């Protein structure tokens, strides 16, 4: 049976869904973030019908819905987070919450998963690279992902004829949706298929591939477009790269520094933008975990994602 594994990183906690040696899903959570299923108390500051805003004791604002009619402004509420805060290009969406009495149970994989010292080699890197590049290759083509404020778009590119390319893309799309933990509104731009029978065949294949993944879906239109809507609980890896590429890359740089083995000093070479993101307590934690001093060198010629770690001898 697939199993969630949890890795306590520096600056983030990571989760992967593993089936044998195959990774099916990946998520991460950053310290201090609200997360779906989290119980909190907050004071209702505004109310408009069954919706309003609330403020936590530490001053953070939340959107609240499904409010009882007899609850007034100024009341302290016991709430459950239904969606984490989301950063999108040009705007910030507050976390959303509901009263406990109106909340459905949420399975929190970060609580239920099995803690491990380190994931099997390469699995987190595979998911991280797919999200970083926004591209997933498959036999005959590739999927290209783009995050917009309205929806996540998936474009299909390849050299096969339109029907063959569409059919070949179905299983990789289903796998990528789960791997990258995508939710909300998702648009898939298949190649245009003139024949209605071809569109129906792709629709049927997509339905089979997404069986067991909760969602709603439109039928493919004449231009090859399909829209999915799935529950959105927080930022996916893909969304984090769209709005926090430097933050994601800084955390991966520290993971590489932590994983390298040997005796001496850990030399971490990275782009200068990452250096500005590294907190002193994060670097101290690398030294504690590795029992080695950490030395940082910057190279503006490196790509943001290309930090490299090695162990060097004592000078």
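^ structure tokens above, recovered residues below v
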């Amino acid at each position: 049976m697939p199993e969630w594994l949890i890795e306590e990183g520096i600056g983030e906690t990571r989760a992967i869904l593993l089936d044998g040696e195959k990774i099916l899903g990946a998520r991460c959570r950053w310290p201090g973030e609200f997360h779906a299923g989290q119980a909190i108390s907050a004071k209702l500051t505004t109310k408009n019908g069954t919706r309003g805003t609330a403020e936590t004791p530490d001053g953070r604002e939340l959107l609240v819905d499904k409010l009882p009619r007899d609850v007034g402004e100024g009341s302290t509420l016991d709430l459950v987070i239904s969606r984490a805060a989301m950063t999108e290009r040009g705007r910030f969406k507050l976390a959303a919450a509901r009263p406990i009495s109106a909340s459905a149970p949420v399975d929190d994989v970060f609580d239920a998963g099995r803690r491990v010292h380190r994931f099997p080699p390469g699995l987190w890197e595979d998911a991280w690279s797919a999200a970083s590049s926004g591209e997933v290759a498959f036999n005959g083509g590739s999927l290209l992902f783009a995050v917009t404020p309205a929806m996540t778009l998936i474009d299909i590119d390849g050299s096969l004829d339109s029907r063959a390319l569409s059919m070949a893309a179905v299983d990789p799309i289903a796998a990528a949706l789960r791997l990258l933990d995508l939710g909300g509104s998702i648009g898939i731009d298949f190649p245009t298929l003139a024949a209605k029978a071809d569109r129906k065949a792709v629709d049927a294949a997509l339905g089979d591939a997404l069986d067991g993944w909760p969602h709603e879906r439109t039928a493919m239109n004449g231009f090859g477009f399909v829209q999915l809507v799935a529950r959105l609980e927080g930022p996916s890896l893909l969304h984090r790269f769209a709005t926090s590429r430097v933050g994601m890359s800084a955390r991966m740089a520290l993971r590489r520094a932590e994983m390298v083995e040997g005796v001496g000093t850990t030399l971490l070479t990275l782009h200068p933008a990452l250096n500005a993101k590294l907190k002193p307590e994060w670097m101290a934690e690398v030294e504690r975990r590795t029992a080695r001093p950490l030395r940082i060198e910057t190279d503006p010629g490196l790509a943001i994602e290309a930090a490299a770690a090695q162990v060097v001898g004592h000078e």
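Residues 38 and 81 are 5 Å apart (CA to CA).
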